[in-house]
Amino acid sequence: MRRGARLLMYAVTAAIVLGFGKVHAAQIGHYDFTGSARFSWAIAYIALLCASAYGVGLPELPRNFFQAVVSGAGASFGAAVGISLLQLGTGDALLPRFVVFWSAIGVVPAYALCSALAARDQRRRAGRDKVIAVLGSADEATLRSDLELNPERPASLTRTMSVDDARGAGEPDQPLVRVADETGAIVVVLDRLAQNDESVVAQAAQLHERGVRVRTLSLFYDEWLGKLPVSELERVGLMFDIGEVHRVRYGRVKRQIDIVLALLALPVFIVAIPFVLTGNLVANRGALFYRQPRVGKGDRQFEIRKFRTMGATEGPTDWTRDDDPRITRFGRVLRRTHLDELPQVLNILRGDLAVVGPRPEQPRYVEELVEKIPFYGLRHLVRPGLTGWAQVKYPYGADEIDAVEKLQYEFYYLRHQSLTLDARILGRTVRSVIGRGGR
């Protein structure tokens, strides 16, 4: 239903814009709408409205009707301004103001309705995926915590059992089946020990025949949480293809898209330089750029560039935290607006970075993490990114524990690397920038 609500939002947006376009053509301008250049501008306006709505989190993120209306109004206003500036810049203002204005007004209640449908589905799904898991106590605590963080599919862990508790004493005694019946679970999760127990597997097979889904711990994490469990990293680290390594066509197309997006962002970077220079004179005196060595694809080191946000950060630095006292007043503005990231378009054009991929770390941290985390070096098989799955799924990391958490999401990205996933990450990055600001 959430996906249906989003598709409905896009369809209604198209219907509203094209509807007002037809009204203007028939009643005001007296021209053939679909046969004119105005139809192309209407399509561009539809795309801007849809992208803006998705960027502010519609239809899934608003928690109530008021938030949905405010978000819808913000999205429509942003798209209206965007199409107006686009037409002004091209000197080809063909889309009538009547269509721009009334479409912007008309989509707001439609977006609120779609958000209500998505919220209804989310409430329904929150208690739908009831899960029982046969696993150890350490994995239980981690799983409960992860389900509360940011799951891809809402689920509730209704009961956990050890292998001994789930095994039973024979055919009449089937504890796993009994607990599944009592809780109404629709998913059964088995860790490695449970998968090796014949009695537990036999009961899981019986539940499977009834329509209950059975998943290994690794597959459950993959489907419901969008990550790989830390206990499984070493075991599955080599058991999947990586798009950039095993699919040559994907790697080439991804690189072409990176170059196009970087070229589009390059004028924004150039325009931002005078603004940053002025802000630095007021509250961030020092060099314009911050340069730091990072580890990239194939363990090759490169120098990443950002607009400087700290007072003194030359050379290796400690993990950066949200409340880091080294961040200057203007530096916080740059971080909240993410303008500090703009110079990395140069790294993308040079081939050091991709738009989407695992974030690159400093060499000294990489040396430490490779020693402590199994298969950490797999992330260096692909080009690091300006943004990534770990960045949109997990809060800003500031220590080795966070590095382990992020790696679980990065392994998911490596396992599912594709243009479709890259597009999802870009969309969620826009949402994150608009909704939560910088780190």
List keywords for this structure.
439 residues; alpha/beta; Rossmann fold; 3 domains; four-stranded parallel β-sheet; 8 strands; 60% helix
In short:
Helix content is 60%, strand content 9%. With 439 residues, the chain is of the alpha/beta class.
> What composes the largest sheet?
4 strands, parallel
The termini sit apart by: 33 Å
Mean pLDDT: 87
Shape: globular
Question: Which radius of gyration do the C-alpha atoms yield?
Answer: 25 Å
Low-confidence residue ranges: none
How many structurally independent domains?
Answer: 3
Residues in helices, as a percent range: 55-70%
Strand runs, count: 8
Give the number of helices. 19
Strand order of the largest sheet: 2-1-3-4
Quote the beta fraction: 5-15%
Q: What oligomeric state do these chains adopt?
A: single chain
Broad structural category? alpha/beta
SSE sequence, one letter per element: HHHHEHEHHEHHEHHHHEEHHEHEHHH
Topology:
Blueprint lengths: L1 H28 L7 H19 L9 H26 L6 H30 L3 E5 L2 H13 L6 E6 L1 H5 L7 H9 L3 E4 L1 H4 L2 H12 L3 E4 H9 L7 H4 L6 H4 L1 H36 L5 E7 L5 E7 L21 H9 L6 H7 L3 E3 L6 H10 L12 E3 L1 H5 L6 H17 L2 H18 L3
Parallel strand pairs: 1-2, 1-3, 3-4, 7-8
Antiparallel strand pairs: 5-6
Helix pairs in contact: 1-2, 1-4, 2-3, 2-4, 3-4, 13-14, 13-15
Question: How would you describe this structure to a colleague?
Answer:
By secondary structure, this protein is α/β, with parallel strands linked by helices. The chain folds into three domains: 2-123, no CATH class; 130-225, Rossmann fold (3-Layer(aba) Sandwich); 243-436, no CATH class. The protein is 60% helix and 9% strand. It has helices at 2-29, 37-55, 65-90, 97-126, 137-149, 163-167, 175-183, 192-195, 198-209, 217-225, 233-236, 243-246, 248-283, 329-337, 344-350, 363-372, 389-393, 400-416, 419-436, and strands at residues 130-134, 156-161, 187-190, 213-216, 289-295, 301-307, 354-356, 385-387.
